[in-house]
Hints:
binds S-adenosylmethionine; Arc Repressor Mutant, subunit A; Rossmann fold; 15% strand; alpha/beta; seven-stranded mixed β-sheet
Amino acid sequence: MDYGRNYVQNLLNGFMGTAVIYAACELGIFDLIKDEPKSVKTISNILDAKEEEIIRIIRPLQQYMLVSEKDGKIGLEEMGRFLSKDAENSLKEYALFCGRESVKAWHLLYPAIKEKTTPQKLINDLGLFDEMEQDENRFATFDGMMSSVSKNIELNTFFDEFRKKTDEFQIVDVGGGTGTIICKFLSYYKNANGVIVDLSQAESAAKENIQNNGLSDRLRFQEASFFEKLNIHADVYVLSRILHDWEDKEASMILDNVANDMNEDSRLIVIEDVIKKAEEKNALKGYMCDIQMWVFCNGRERTIAEFEKLFLKSGLVLEKAMELPDGTFSLIVKKAYEELIL
Ligand SMILES: C[S@@+](CC[C@H](N)C(=O)[O-])C[C@H]1O[C@@H](n2cnc3c(N)ncnc32)[C@H](O)[C@@H]1O
């Protein structure tokens, strides 16, 4: 009985954990103690904060096993490293997006359902991407979160399966953002060339990323909207976490524009979370991502069957679905034969 009540109460208190971790990330506490443990007094002085409040933040972080105290100094625990800026697979940018954006929008779930609208529309009538185009700081927060999620996707098992014969091909990453995913393709397929297609907001960070990855000779950025004809012919098209941002009507427009440039030999790789049956492993992740997409973009996560229906509408057919180690799916899609097209 008590266990059940405590369980529900802990679920309800989830927002407190997010707030504490977000505040510690925004303050830079994990970065501050990453290399050298420090006393609360030193941390407070550096942050120009009251010692009492830093103690308040640090106590739950200790309980979460993110930091620990030894000889009067606070140091990082192994899991706390994920919240420092420079860690491999850092979640700091993700935490900042949770605190700066997600918490506010998710809080509007109830009024949005009652008013038959979406949380993002209650905040601002512009869509998320139009809103971000006017505010580069917000795009930077979004891009930081997106890159941290994309960096963590393990694509090597997929790459091993795909295109074994030659790696001399052209890749277009449609809505590729700053290029985290296409850089993975190009570092695996050493003779491939690529183009990132995205809106102007992504351009400068994408160019910087291309340079930092030493890919200036094989990868370029092209400003274009995927709602217009692309006219870029390639062997491989990538749509990574794009379709889930949109309702079926818009998703079909994007797929039409990609399909228009594809030939029989080209393949489209769709990287997305997939809605699974409740009894399947990791089903909750897809359900929560589905709400996240609705909250921000009036989008949705889809079942494999829903993807197949969408592909067929654009004259495409699912060739293979592969679950990646982190539970994300990679869908290989090709042109459909005439008789399959709806
Ligand atoms: C969820 S992010 C995915 C980024 C990247 N594909 C990845 O997986 O890391 C969506 C991307 O779509 C881009 N985008 C939004 N509307 C677009 C449009 N009309 N044309 C091209 N790109 C667009 C955004 O700028 C953003 O980079």
